[in-house]
Write a structure and sequence with these properties.
It is built from 5 helices and 6 strands. The chain has 151 residues and is of the alpha+beta class. The strands form 2 sheets. A 4-stranded antiparallel sheet has the order 1-2-3-4. A two-stranded antiparallel ribbon has the order 5-6. A hairpin with a 4-residue loop joins strand 5 and strand 6. The longest helix has 14 residues.
Length: 151
């Protein structure tokens, strides 16, 4: 309750107006900007996951761009997202003929599967001991952050 008072006081001190109809207080979980936030954990919102699951079969470049936009928003939840999505993004290039083949179907299905496997990220704790592991090549850069809580 004390944190709520601090937030409200800070908003008032800086002249921010609060739309009370849009406010949600003392909730254990909320959906915000396509994410579900629950007890220091972040996951895609069920509405966004439903949109991914129901996404129709890819038929043209616009469908692929839209699907990659939807899944790309949650790329941090999918290990090797760029690698998995590559067959889809490659056929969007003007120099490559637009043909949806087995590789593209596989990438489409894999992205849907990975996103619906209930991915969850922890919210960063600046107080915890943190390690950043990196690796890179000509084609990609890899980075993963570990905090004490997840070792």
């Amino acid at each position: 309750m004390e944190r709520l008072k601090i937030v409200l006081r800070t908003a008032a001190n800086h002249g921010l107006k609060i739309n009370w109809k849009k406010c949600q207080f003392l909730k254990k979980e909320i959906d915000y900007l396509g994410y579900r936030i629950k007890h220091n954990k972040l996951s895609p919102s069920p509405l966004k996951l439903a949109a991914v699951v129901k996404y129709p079969r890819l038929q043209n470049p616009k469908h692929i761009q839209s699907f990659l936009g939807l899944t790309g928003y949650f790329r941090k939840f999918i290990k090797d997202y760029a690698l998995i999505a590559r067959p889809l993004s490659e056929i969007l290039k003007k120099s490559i003929p637009f043909v949806i083949g087995p590789q593209q179907e596989s990438a489409f299905n894999m992205l849907k599967k990975k996103l619906t496997e209930a991915p969850v990220l922890g919210i960063f704790n600046k107080e915890a001991v943190t390690e950043v592991h990196t690796d890179a090549s000509i084609r990609w850069v890899w980075r993963h952050t570990f905090t004490e809580r997840f070792r």
